[in-house]
């Protein structure tokens, strides 16, 4: 099955990145400059993340999503599709299943607060990828989502998350 990437969002301006440049934002920077902007349909500061529909994201092994399975850095994705974000609850763990395995949560969501430490601006949850036979892997994911304001719970707001994938296949 081919991976279907979405067309990139509007970018404020094309940026020529220098050789050796590495995208390594903090949690707050991911939320402030990427996740909140894509939800608001505002231009992104740079085209450094792949956009992918949740269906395709969860139906592929992480090795098929990243450029190089032996890389030394994390890769970032803007994932779109509200019906997949909340996954299935299995023994109080969030499980996002695909044909090749599943992402299983490791604990509860963490609150991400603004730079002043006053307001919750997003939530982060850690996952590990498991093969269908429940064999764990070294692939990890951090999934970032915005809180849903009470007045928007029933609205048809577009859902986006940022996914940071790291790790590599076992040797």
Features:
alpha+beta, nine-stranded mixed β-sheet, 9 strands, 171 residues
What secondary-structure arrangement, pairings included, does this model have?
Elements: H1 27-39, E1 50-53, H2 54-58, H3 62-65, E2 75-80, H4 82-85, E3 88-90, E4 93-97, E5 102-105, E6 110-113, E7 120-130, E8 136-145, E9 160-166
Parallel strand pairs: 1-2
Antiparallel strand pairs: 2-9, 3-4, 4-5, 5-7, 6-7, 7-8, 8-9
Could you explain how this protein is built, in words?
There is one protein chain. The protein is an alpha+beta fold and 171 residues long. The protein has four helices and nine strands. Strands 1, 2, 3, 4, 5, 6, 7, 8 and 9 form a nine-stranded mixed β-sheet that branches. The longest helix is centred in the first third of the chain and has 13 residues, at 27-39. It is globular and about 45 Å long.
Q: Which residues sit in consecutive blocks of at least 5 with pLDDT less than 50? A: 1-7, 88-92
Order of helices and strands: HEHHEHEEEEEEE
Radius of gyration: 16 Å
Strand-residue proportion = 25-35%
Provide mean pLDDT, rounded: 76
Number of helices: 4
How would you characterize the largest beta sheet?
9 strands, mixed
Beginning-to-end CA distance, first to last residue: 25 Å
SSE-based structural type: alpha+beta
């Amino acid at each position: 099955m081919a991976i279907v990437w979405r067309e990139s969002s509007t970018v404020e301006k094309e940026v020529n990145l220098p050789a050796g440049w590495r995208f390594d934002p903090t949690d707050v920077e991911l939320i402030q400059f990427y996740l909140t902007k894509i939800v608001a349909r505002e231009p992104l500061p740079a085209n450094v993340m792949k956009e992918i529909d949740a269906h395709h994201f969860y139906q592929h092994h992480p090795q098929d999503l990243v450029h190089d399975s032996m890389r030394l850095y994390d890769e970032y994705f803007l994932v779109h599709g509200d019906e997949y974000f909340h996954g299935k609850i299995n023994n109080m763990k969030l499980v996002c299943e695909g044909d090749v395995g599943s992402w299983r949560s490791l604990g509860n969501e963490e609150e991400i607060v603004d730079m002043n430490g006053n307001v919750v601006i997003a939530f982060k949850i850690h996952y590990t990828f498991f093969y269908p036979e429940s064999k764990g892997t070294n692939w990890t994911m951090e999934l970032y989502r915005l809180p849903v304001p009470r007045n928007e719970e029933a609205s048809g707001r577009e859902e986006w998350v940022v996914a940071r994938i790291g790790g590599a296949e076992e040797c």
